[in-house]
Amino acid sequence: MTATRTTCPYCGVGCGVVATPDGQGGAAIAGDPEHPANFGRLCSKGSALGETLGLETRLLHPMMRDAGGALRRASWDAALDRVAEGFATAIRRHGPDSVAFYLSGQLLTEDYYVANKLMKGFIGSGNVDTNSRLCMASSVAGHKRAFGSDTVPGCYDDLDEADLLVLVGSNAAWCHPVLWQRMQKSRERGARMVVIDPRGTATGEGADTHLAIRHGTDAVLFAGLLVHLADARAAALPFIADHTSGFALALAAARALAPNLAEVAAKTGLAAADLRAFFSEWASTERVVTLYSQGVNQAVAGTDKVNAIINCHLATGRIGRPGMGPFSLTGQPNAMGGREVGGLANQLAAHMGFSPSEVDRVGRFWGAPMMATREGRKAVDLFDAIERGAIKALWVMGTNPTVSLPRADAARAAMAKLDLLVVSENVLSTDSSAAAHVLLPAAAWGEKDGTVTNSERRISRQRPFLPMPGEVRPDWQALAGVAARLGWGEAFAFDGPAAIFREHAALSAFENAGARDFDIGGLATLSDAAYEAFEPTQWPVRRPAHPPLEGEGRREAAGWGEGRAGRDPAVSSSMPGVTPPRRSLAVDPPPQGEGGAAPSVAEPRGTARLFADGRFFTPDRRARFVAIAAAQPPRVTPEHPLVLNTGRVRDQWHTMMRTGLSPRLGGHRPEPTLEVHPDDADRFGLSDGGLCRVSSVHGAATLRVAVSMAQTPGTVFAPIHWNDETAADARVGALVHAVVDPFSGQPDAKATACAVAPVASTLSGFVLSRRRITLPRRMFWAWSAIVGGYVARLAGNGAAAEILAALEAALPGCEIARYIDAEHDVGRAALIVDGRLEAVVYTAPAGQEPGWAGLLDLWAKPKLERRDRLAVLSGAAGPAGSDDGPLVCACFGVSENRVRAAVAGGCRDPASLGAALKAGTNCGSCIPELKRLVAAADRPMALAGE
User: Fold this and answer.
1) How far apart are CA 818 and CA 830, in angstroms?
2) Where is this region: Disordered (predicted)?
3) The domain 642-874 is classified under which CATH number: 2.40.40.20, 3.90.1150.10, 1.10.10.10, 2.115.10.20?
4) 538 exposed, middle or buried (CB, 10 Å; 0-12, 13-18, 19+)?
5) What residues pair up with 245 in beta bridges, in sequence order?
6) DSSP state of 923
7) 234, 356, 507, 560: least surrounded by Cβ within 10 Å?
8) Strand, coil or helix: 298
């Protein structure tokens, strides 16, 4: 079959993928060696994409809820008629602001563009927001405050050229493994790495220094760094004077927040010596890249944290040149593309806002009859408005808000109040589709056709390599169908994604003349064939005829020169509180095509770096320093004495609707856990491997306890992925408070006050099933994929008969063979269809957990023999402890027990383990765990020799 070059649908790294269909609905997946984001490397999730391509969980045709509340199959015409009628009724009765779209960073840019155009240009409301609000809105706000635009200054090549890599609130080893490997290569050539994170993570283990900062004090740390740069004469005063404004106010605010090293140490919880070393290293190293992610963005003061980082780079002029600059690590595959087309409620398309001139410009370009004139509701406010009844109709596309939003229980209850809830999904059953009035089957990865933009502004194609099954359609086509029914068919008469992309590109250049950062006008005339063959390209890509701006020039090769017109009078070499530098900061001239706010000629490859000439996208072309305010520490109470931090695990993605289908990805962290410091475990009576109930004022979840020194006392950590489809009671979003950053509207997912308590358990066991089934919710269970089905681990208070009854109800008509010893709480049962195992359940008293690995040979058999049935019921096929242990390397399926055996056989480092098992030789995200297993084996040996 023909191989297709496409782009990975997971994180914002935007890795190139080569997919070769197998002719049976699947495909072989490999990294694209020619894609500049990854050069052929893939992480564990990307490597396992082929395991997620089946139709088992797919929504394949439209469905509508009838008067009795049942979902029934419908035609596309009937479904779109109902959507259009519901939106039209709400608009007629309550106005355009009574309807909304809630989108996703997994949508393609073309889908995003059509949704934004329909709502903001034709319905006339700004109510388009996205789950990207939950991950990078604070970065957007910080960029706009500093640069006048949402511009990422640098590129991935900067990671190769930096001499100091500073990661703030980022577990890149797990969340961005391909870039992490690139950073490790830089360490091999001598670059140093500092990780700033309150948690111990795989990223911190792989760094030269881990600064375990107190929760929420990142801005204090970087305010202290700004003060140090000024006092140590490390600030680039000529650059500050010629190209920025607001330095004096920002420095004064930093001094108030972090007046001296002792104060910074007291507030951050770091040792003064460690701070002094970090400040000195940052100040003395010219090529510094500061990378930040959700630990910075997902905070009540996330935007100030972003600007505190950017302030330090502006103060030293370390921006727009190779190997330096602030860099936002984006969480979703097309969060950047969504930002480009106005997917956020406070933006219009092409990075324009809601000023009267911008509203007029976009309206004239679109020929829009009902142009929105003000910002819409951001995500948290949007769902609050649904709860109040202000929003009557909502269209959700490609996201699962009843799991991912803060106060997720309240979001679920609010959605049930809507007059019309439309959900466009490629999965039949999600938490968010349970209350939908209309379900629309959307194209999945492998079927999608369009573009995405990664964290370094690189636009890449997602190309289809599988046909759309059933009655599936792309999202833009469903939107265009509703637009036509509302009377605007001509404006949405696109004949394919290439036409949408051309319109999007043309709008970016419309009345631009270099004044706006986002400009891909050079791509506005791509033919369909050129669009199909489009190579990954970084924006801006301006039209070749674009004239340079008046006075536009490049920075002098000798440094940030004195005497340029327009010097900021507030900054001078005799400025109070600032010692002048001994000399100007020497710089190399920027490479051709990399340095202007508006290059005169668009290059085919686009533009790698911006701001090299010191010109920004503010009205006066100066960057803005931002005065940072003091942030309140996380608030705990006697009833909720701990701080809950949430995030990802290595091998899962968002709410597991795709990664949860892969056997390889389910083996590393198969259950939802709460990581707790040993001191807190003792304090609250928790035991490692036991169950606990974690609660906040908003909700609660039951999780498996993982005692870990990686946590700081007083804090706990829970992953975000599990939901009601995959676990009994593990929706962590239900606990998270709805506190948001005042500038970005991004919710704080890192510091919710919570309480924990142990949960007694009398039963343990497992269920094997060909498909996921809802088991009794009063017990603890969580599904993970295995070859040929799923396994759920059981714990809690219940009985074998209760589990079996749930299986029988879900699998009517099965032949059932069972053995139950109620006196000893032992139960075993096999559910059989046409001679093949359909489900198996084993239960035993707590502490006597049965294993299932011994059943896997029988699980794979197409037909059981009589002795096989006896083996299942007797327990002889699956003795306790027969499992191979957690998966360490998901890329090559290497389990913990295999690693331990290799260590016992003489392997003493990741390199030798890689040679023996291949573990750690692909994405490398398991290398810290390999090191821990080697160290754990060496400790008893050291003790024995003492």
Assistant:
1) 6
2) 540-605
3) 2.40.40.20
4) buried
5) 624
6) S
7) 356
8) coil
pLDDT in tens, 654-703: 999 999 999 999 889 999 999 999 999 999 999 999 999 999 999 999 99
- Strands 780-786 and 642-647, by their bridges, are unpaired
Q: What are the phi and psi torsion angles at 574 (to 5°)?
A: -110, 25
DSSP assigned state of 49: G
Share of the chain above pLDDT 90, in %: 75
Matching residue, tokens 């972090």:
258
CA-CA distance, 73 to 66, in Å (whole number)? 10
Residue 638 pLDDT greater than 70, yes or no: yes
Q: For the chain, where do the domains classified as CATH 3.30.200.210 start and end?
A: 4-52
CB 360, CB 41: distance < 8 Å: no
What superfamily would CATH give domain 887-945? BFD-like [2Fe-2S]-binding domain (1.10.10.1100)
Amino acid at 732: V
Residue 514: CB atoms within 10 Å: 21
Instruction: Give the integer Cα–Cα distance in Å for 59 and 440.
Output: 8
SS3 string of 850-861? CCCHHHHHHHHC
Of the pLDDT bands very low, low, confident and very high (cuts 50, 70, 90), residue 340 is very high
Q: Which residue has the tokens 């003000």?
A: 374
Residues ≥6 apart with Cβ < 8 Å to 367? 491
Amino acid at residue number 756: V
645: three-class secondary structure by DSSP: strand
CATH architecture of 138-328: 3-Layer(aba) Sandwich (3.40)
Q: What count of other Cβ atoms lies within 10 Å of the Cβ of residue 547?
A: 10
DSSP string, 721-783: ---TTTBSS--GGGTS---B-TTT--B--S-EEEEEEEE---EEEEEEESS--PPPTTSEEEE
Which residues have C-beta within 8 Å of that of residue 74, sequence separation ≥ 6? 61, 62, 63, 64, 82, 438
Over residues 790-820, the pLDDT tens digits come to 999 999 887 778 888 888 888 888 888 888 8
Least confident of 122-131, 146-155, 601-610, 826-835: 601-610
Q: What is the pLDDT of residue 570?
A: 41
Helices (H), 643-714: 678-684
Query: pTM of the prediction?
Result: 0.91
Q: pLDDT-based confidence at 330, cuts 50/70/90? A: confident
Predicted pLDDT at 853: 80
Span 63-136+335-494 CATH architecture:
3-Layer(aba) Sandwich (3.40)
The pLDDT of residue 929 is 86
Residues 6+ away with beta carbon under 8 Å from 327: 152, 153, 154, 158, 289, 290, 291, 292, 455
pLDDT band at 587, cuts 50/70/90? very low
According to the model, what pLDDT value does residue 821 have? 81
Backbone angles phi, psi at 452, to 5 degrees: -135, 160
Distance, in Å, from the CA atom of 252 to the CA atom of 246, rounded to the nearest integer, reads 10
pLDDT exceeds cutoff 80 at 365:
yes
Whether the predicted pLDDT of 578 surpasses 80: no
Highest mean pLDDT among 330-334, 573-577, 758-762, 850-854: 758-762
Alpha carbon distances (Å) from 378 to 174, 322, 385, 660, 741: 29, 36, 10, 29, 11
Can you tell me the mean pLDDT for 498-503? 98
Mean pLDDT rounded to a whole number for the chain? 89
- Asked if the bond preceding 670 is cis, omega within 30° of 0, the reply is no
Q: In the chain, list all ranges with CATH 3.40.50.740.
A: 63-136+335-494
Residue in 722, 630, 628 with CA at minimum distance from that of residue 674: 722
Kindly give, in sequence order, each residue whose CB lies less than 8 Å from that of residue 569, ignoring residues fewer than 6 positions away. Answer: none
CB 723 within 8 A of CB 431: yes
